[in-house]
Structures are given as C-alpha cells and as structure tokens.
Amino acid sequence: MNLIRNLSRLPGIGVKTAERLAMHILQKPRKEAERLSRSILEVRKKAKLCSLCFALSDSDICNICSNPERDPAILCVVEHPAEMVAVEKSGAFRGLYHILQGALSPMDGVGPDNIRIRELISRVEEGQVREVVLATNTNVGGESTASYISECLKNYPIKVTRIASGVPVGGELKYVDQVTLKRAMETRHTI
Fold this sequence. Notes:
By secondary structure, the chain is an alpha/beta fold. The protein folds into two domains: 45 residues, RecR Domain 1 (Helicase, Ruva Protein, domain 3, Orthogonal Bundle), CATH 1.10.8.420; 95 residues, Dna Topoisomerase Vi A Subunit, Chain: A, domain 2, CATH 3.40.1360. The protein is 41% helix and 13% strand. A hairpin with a 6-residue loop joins strand 1 and strand 2.
C-alpha cells in the first residue's frame, strides 16, 4: 500500500507504525483524512526559513526572533531546527538562535561555505551579540563545527561558550560510555 510505504519514510516511523497510522487514517471519516492532507500541503506551501535565525517559520521573521522578551545579545547556535525545538522545550534559554542548517563534514563535501557560518559572523559583526552559545551535537561533525566557529569568533569582543556534556541526569556511571565519562571528568566544576 502506497500510504504505508510513504509513512514509513518519515523519520522514526517503521513499517509497523506506518501500518497503524494508515489503519487509523482509514478508520476516520473522510473529512479528517482530507484535513490531514490539506495541512500537509499547507505547511509545505507556507513554511520558509526565518530571515534572521533560519528556523522554519510561516513568516519572514519567526516568533522567537520577533519576541521583544528574548535577549538578542545571546545567540544559541544549533545545527538544525529540531535542536532549537529541543532547547526551547527545556525552557532554559531566553536568547535568540542561529541555525546552521548542518555541520561540517569534509568527507561528505560539507565545508564552511555550505552551512550558515558566514551569516553567524555577520550577526556578530552587527555588534549587538555579547555571547555565542555553541550547542552543536557532540559527535565528530558537531565538535569540529563548534571548534571552527570558536576559532572564527576569537577576534570579536564576545564570549563564546559551549554547552556542557557528560553524564546524563539520572544516569548510572557503570552504563555511561567511556568518551562521555572522559568528557564529564574533563569538564567537571566546583560545587
């Protein structure tokens, strides 16, 4: 069935989940299926990138960038919109974002010109930013991206920070991988 095949192409959706979703859609009234179909087409038609932070938005400037209660002096740099959503859900950040739309990966042909590093530097050069929080992933690509950005920003009068990484809250040390545990030991702090 085409519907199952197409649903299973979505991230995190396997064949069994796609089958359950398809059966759910088929059991609902036709109007609900049409409403779902229209909403998918509508989001594809209206979604665009925010002209400031490059988040997905239905307007030129997203709700976060246009919110006067956010602190424009602090930028949180993430790789993709999904990471921005995760940081937002934490409720721990009240500044603005900069979404790179990827991470450096020379093996895959992704260099500094293929992600939005130039735009980040332009935002810093405007003079309003006091701190850049590097919240890229802790894999090889994310780490190299954070290191590269840190190097690019070292001559600007701003603070460049990196999100902490290490043992997760509620985690047991005996189950934590060696690289994570090593990072936690290296970035320990006084309490």
